[in-house]
Amino acid sequence: MTSEKVADRTASAAAARQNGSGHGASEGYQRGLGNRQIQMIAIGGAIGTGLFLGAGKAISKAGPSLILAYALAGLVIFFIMRALGELLMYRPVSGSFSEYAREFLGPFFGYVTGWTYWLFWVVTGITEVTAAATYVHYWDKSIPQWVSALIFTVVLYLANLISVKLFGELEFWFSMVKVTAIIGMILIGIGVLTLGFSDAGDTASVSNLWSHGGFFAGDDGITSMLMTLQIVMFAFLAVELVGVTAGEAKDPKKTLPKAINTVPWRIAVFYIGALIIILSVVPWTAFEAGKSPFVEAFARIGLPAGAGIVNFVVLTAALSSCNSGMYSTGRMLRDLALNGQGPKFFGQLTKTGLPLRGTTFSAVLMLVGVWINYQWPGEAFNYVVSFATISGMWAWIMILVAQLRYRRKADRGELPQSEFRAPGAPWTSYFALAFILMVIVLMGIDQDSRVSLYCAPLWGLIMGVSYLVLKRRNPAAFERKSTEHYAKLAADARAEAEHVA
């Protein structure tokens, strides 16, 4: 096929997608995300407040065995991301797992996944802007929490309206701050352990990993470690965001596989490596819920500025997550609109290729978080965080099941094989599914996290009723398309990706 034919086919596919009748790879978006931005988005998605703050509670429950919990969960996350990568190379679309659920599981699952992931990011945006507002109090407690939340929401909203490239730049620098902080902590910790300098030099030792009650030092041994898996999995939420960038990556065939393949070493360094160093420098018995293990480690080393440094890092982590929420919600609403499963109002793009209407609507809902901060500044975070974990894991389940369905069709020759096949599949996908289901069961057992499951039936009822109503009004939008239809869309997507590259 000549480059002229590829260009013509790409243009017609994008135009059809713009009108809601096709599924081009870029879907009318501008490919403004380069390799370094995609890599940092992938890194940033795996590093958040769950590590900088949430790890304190997990350490106090499980002791050093938390390292094993992160290793197990990290392996499962890699399986999930490789399953997503296989789907992305088959058909790179901005709707990502919502599109794959629609294709391989049916219109209902695509509908539920799209709206659930949209709500996940709205809720996450509220929680993170709430958290960011509380971090400002470290420097100035006279600033009302709701004022900080309002400023952060407006600034990030405006940044997302300028260009996708600016979103990518913000994520790049937000992630750079987090990465620099963790690497700095690791290097300082290694220096303390090997050279013995600092206030912690006399007690710092790798033996701290097993000398205070053993490696499985929690109250219930291995059971305590298992009960922290829900906290660990929450820390990894948003790692799948790299899939949503598929329609705006400059060279998705190269950048996305590279970003996904770096998941193991990112987890090994930033989670496992950091925890090994921290728990070697400071005995696990010194940590407690609600306090950052990074702050405690800096304090023990004798760096009083450490608390301020970590506070700045968790502030950027929260803003990074909120920024990602602004980005993804607009794309999800547009995908639903173009498939007839959401208001057509959200289907339009600006001249610069931005889903202005969907982003604006989502940002307005995030401002509800500002009102919550005004009404209940001390309880706001707890009010909105419960839904995030279960909705995020729903997206992971859809990715895995869709990949299993795709692999069966590809192996039968009904669909083209992906250029980035998941190693060990389907068994790795089955293992990841079983692991996620086990975590959900553990969430039901644990009293602290059980509230996360209470929202799921209510949301499922809302989705089921609304689906039936919309299907009756517009049956065509919920008809299941043929395998041949999706095979053609995949061919168009690959042709566009090759042309762009």
Automatic annotation (TrEMBL):
Primary location recorded for the protein, binned into one broad class: membrane
Pfam families: AA_permease
Chain spans, region Disordered: 1-30
Compartments where found: Cell membrane
InterPro entries: AA-permease/SLC12A_dom, Amino_acid_permease_CS
Record key words, sorted: Amino-acid transport, Cell membrane, Membrane, Transmembrane, Transmembrane helix, Transport
Ribonucleoprotein as UniProt keyword: no
Start and end residues of each Amino acid permease/ SLC12A domain: 38-475
Membrane spanning stretches: 40-59, 65-84, 104-126, 146-167, 179-201, 221-246, 267-286, 298-322, 354-374, 380-406, 427-445, 451-470
Gene3D superfamilies: Amino acid/polyamine transporter I
Topology in the lipid bilayer: Multi-pass membrane protein
Superkingdom to which the source organism belongs: Bacteria
GO biological process: amino acid transport; transmembrane transport
GO cellular component terms listed in the entry, alphabetical order: plasma membrane
Family: Belongs to the amino acid-polyamine-organocation (APC) superfamily. Amino acid transporter (AAT) (TC 2.A.3.1) family.
Name the record gives this protein: Proline-specific permease ProY
